[in-house]
Amino acid sequence: MTANLLIGLREGLEASLVVGLLVAALVRAGRRDALPAVAGGVVLAVLLSAGLGAVLELTSRDMTFRQQELFGGSLSILSVGLVTWMVLWMRRVARDLRADLGARVGSALAVGPLAVGLVALLAVGREGLETALFLWAAARATGSGPAPLAGAAVGLAVAAVLGYLVYRGALRIDLRRFFTWSGAALVVVAGGVLAYGVHDLQEAAVLPGLTTLAFDVSGAVPPSSWYGVLLKGTVGFTPATTWLQAVAWLLYVVPMLLVVLRPGGPPRRARAAGPRAVAPAA
Amino acid sequence: MHRTRPALPAAAVVGLLVAAVAGCATDPVPAAGGGTADGPVVVTAGDDTCEVSRTDLTAGISTFAITNTGSDVTEVYVYDGDRVVTEKENIGPGTAYDLTVDLGEGTYQVACKPGMVGDGIRSDLVVAPAAATAADDPAAERAVEEYRAFVQEQADAAVPLVTALADAVRAGDAETARALYAPSRLPWERVEPVAEAFGDLDPRMDAREADLAPGDDFTGWHRLEKALWTGEDLAPLAPVADQLVADVTELAGRVPEAVITPTSVGNGAKALLDEVATGKITGEEEAFSHTDLVDVEGNVDGAERALDVLRPLAAEEDPDLVAELDARFADLHAALEPHRRGEGWVSYDTLDDAQRRDLSRAVDAVSEPLSGLAAAASR
């Protein structure tokens, strides 16, 4: 029960964090109109995952291992790209806030509903197929009754609740800090997803260096322990990390954090005030 | 200027995703005679064990039927040296998963990783080149199809016989069940080598109590045999009887997919005689019912049938061998004949050591030249 619960939790955690922060950001930027797009992305991802899972499960069709890894790895990297776009958008909101405290945030920052829908779709759909297959296997589990399926479902529910709590918490944080800190949090999540995608591509033998490990702390942090699961589900921490994963993570996270947390950055004061209000958007 | 438009149209991405997966998913088509067309490799992954039912495979599509019997999450990998050939992560406790992979000739390792850490518990897999198919030799193909038809006929015949036995067990009618027991085994004994290729069925249906590993369930014919001849209460055995019916029905359904080649037919004939020599002559097979001679009849029938279907192929290659086998089979029938009683046979416990030795010699006399049949038929 516990082990299956933790699998569900790990698979669901990253998606619920990203979606929770995305919803919080849209609410706080006064862009509630984009929320249906987020919901649409989530629902579509669930339907796609369940549908494809069912197709693969119920027919004898099968993806080869290399196809699966390529698919998962590419989705991860696409996902990182979208989350990065979202982080940069949030950074601009934060900068505008610094420039003009009273301004209605986001009014000038058009964010396409399609784009946020895509972020949600990929956040949920990236691990969705894997999770759907796992749920199918749990549902089919012989000799152990409904326990595996119940465990996995409870794990996913716990992940959803945690995502909701992050969202509630995010609404309470000081508005200016919110965008900076949630941007930073998303950078770390995206770094984990990138490292995970790199590992998938290494397993598919598209990228080299699968066996050259930078470190291996599986002894101290077993991947199936609750804290191992939390680390993996939130910041994408893998106890046994290859050099390539570590380098990719550093090359992404360090510059991105500098960008997001850079306190200065000339606020667009000159343009944040009057002129833009009257100038038609080009 | 300040408007941020999504760089990627959503519709395109969604379409791309579905197309990617649908296009990636392929129907595994087992190469003829390749992979595990003769049944999946059963991997039982525990917290500190990794049991692999077979480690000798043939090239082609293989299926690993994985069950996690442990209390921790596990992963199963197939490695070619350091390269991951395929893997399945997140196999939760109590869940099962079929991993399908196309393996070429070579040596691989299968690893279970309980707790998803480390190098795992590994076993070597040896993948032999796929057997040459009989498709390019009409005579061989005819022989194979003739033998398959025989196996199908026997398997189909076994279903009602086993069903009747099971009905008697469920009804608590031990006397009727005892009478039905040996005849229900006869078709099975005729085709046992093919049935054994379905690795998971044979141990469930035909395991002898003495051969079980600790912790294995004792099921199948011999479980019923023990109960029927030791006067056990039959009520708890209804599930065993039901399982046997289900298994024999599954066997009949799987004959069309059995991998049969002239070589396997010849080797099967030899295996049948070995069965007689090692299990039946000693009286171990039917330790309670002493119906061993019925099993012997089935084994000899099956071996002779194999010789008959291979006759056109083997006679061309090695006519002397075929003539010798015919003579030895005749001797074996002569040795068995005194023990025949009408439609059936005497109870095996009435044979003294000298009679058993005579039978044993007659069996060995067939078995020895029979080992050349597969080679003669497949050249």
Structural features:
heterodimer, A: 282 residues, mainly alpha, disordered C terminus, B: alpha+beta, Immunoglobulin-like, A middle domain of Talin 1, 2 domains, five-stranded mixed sheet, four-stranded mixed sheet
Could you explain how this protein is built, in words?
The complex is a heterodimer of chains A (282) and B (379). Chain A has eleven helices and two strands; from the N terminus they run H-H-H-H-H-H-H-E-H-E-H-H-H. With 282 residues, chain A is mostly helical. Chain A has one domain. Chain A has a two-stranded antiparallel ribbon. Mean pLDDT of chain A is 80; it is low at 105-109 and 266-282. Chain B is globular, with a radius of gyration of 25 Å. Chain B is α+β, with helices and mostly antiparallel strands and 379 residues long. In chain B, the strands form three sheets. Chain B has a five-stranded mixed beta sheet with strand order 3-9-8-5-6, with no helix packed on it. A four-stranded mixed beta sheet of chain B has the order 2-1-4-7, with no helix packed on it. In chain B, strands 10-11 form a two-stranded antiparallel sheet. At the A-B interface, helix 1, helix 2, helix 3, helix 4 and helix 5 of A face helix 1, strand 6 and strand 7 of B.
Secondary structure topology:
The complex is a heterodimer of chains A (282) and B (379).
Chain A: H1 2-28, H2 35-58, H3 65-99, H4 113-125, H5 128-140, H6 147-172, H7 175-203, E1 213-216, H8 226-235, E2 240-242, H9 243-261, H10 269-272, H11 274-278
Antiparallel strand pairs in A: 1-2
Helix pairs in contact in A: 1-4, 1-6, 1-7, 1-8, 2-4, 2-5, 3-4, 3-7, 5-6, 7-9
Chain B: H1 10-24, E1 41-45, E2 50-52, E3 56-58, E4 60-68, E5 74-80, E6 83-91, E7 96-103, E8 106-112, E9 121-128, H2 138-170, H3 174-190, H4 192-197, H5 201-206, H6 221-230, H7 238-254, H8 262-280, H9 292-317, H10 319-336, E10 340-341, E11 344-345, H11 353-370, H12 373-378
Parallel strand pairs in B: 1-4, 3-9
Antiparallel strand pairs in B: 1-2, 4-7, 5-6, 5-8, 8-9, 10-11
Helix pairs in contact in B: 2-3, 2-7, 2-9, 3-6, 3-9, 8-9, 8-11, 9-10, 10-11
